[in-house]
Amino acid sequence: HVQLVESGGGSVQAGGSLNLSCAASGVIFSNTCMGWFRQFPGAEREGVAMIDSDGSTKYIDSVKGRFAISKDNRKSVLFLQMNSLEPEDTAMYYCAASRLCIEFLPSEIPLMENRGQGTQVTVS
After folding, report:
1. How many other C-beta atoms are found inside a 10 Å radius of the C-beta of residue 32?
2. Bridge-partner residues for 33, per DSSP?
3. In b/e form, how buried is each residue of 81-97, taking b as 16+ CB within 10 angstroms?
4. Are 8 and 75 in contact (CB under 8 A)?
5. Are the C-beta atoms of residues 49 and 106 closer than 8 Å to each other?
6. Taking the mean position of all CA atoms in its chain, how far away is CA 8?
7. Angle CA(15)–CA(38)–CA(101) in degrees, nearest 5?
8. How far is the C-alpha of 45 from the C-alpha of 39, rounded, in Å?
9. Is 111 a residue whose pLDDT tops 90?
10. For the chain, what is the total number of helices (H) and then of strands (E)?
11. pLDDT tens digit sequence for 27-54
């Protein structure tokens, strides 16, 4: 049974930083494709960043240079360091995992078969 538990969300002012964490269990973490997606109120989900089993990363253009995805394979934790936050980043952020990255595109992150409950990020 795969379980993903996010933490680290909160309210910050524009220009501030947050570091999201996702503790994973029930997966072979080092061999799993993982990512973060976000959902804006009343809107579709948007893949934000992903990391493959070999450590390769990919981001959507709007967060490049501001967000960094990383993972600790020993502790089975996924991170999303978010800097220079903007009000437009306000959303519920979800951790997601899949056994394989199919095309290694952020658009596939919301479609991954495993996801957490989310953590709210509010930027004002």
Report:
1. 23
2. 98
3. ebeebeeebbbbbbbbb
4. no
5. yes
6. 11
7. 120
8. 4
9. yes
10. 0, 11
11. 888 889 999 999 998 888 999 999 999 9
Cβ-based neighbour number of residue 38 at 10 Å: 23
Tokens matching residue 39: 């959902």
Do the beta carbons of residue 13 and residue 86 sit within 8 Å? no
pLDDT in tens, 63-95: 999 999 999 999 999 999 999 999 999 999 999
Compute the half-sphere exposure of residue 12: CA atoms within 13 Å on the CB side of its CA. Answer: 20
Spell out the alpha helix ranges (H) of 1-124: none
List the end-to-end C-alpha distance of the chain, in Å, as a whole number. Answer: 37
| Local structure of 110: helix, strand or coil | helix
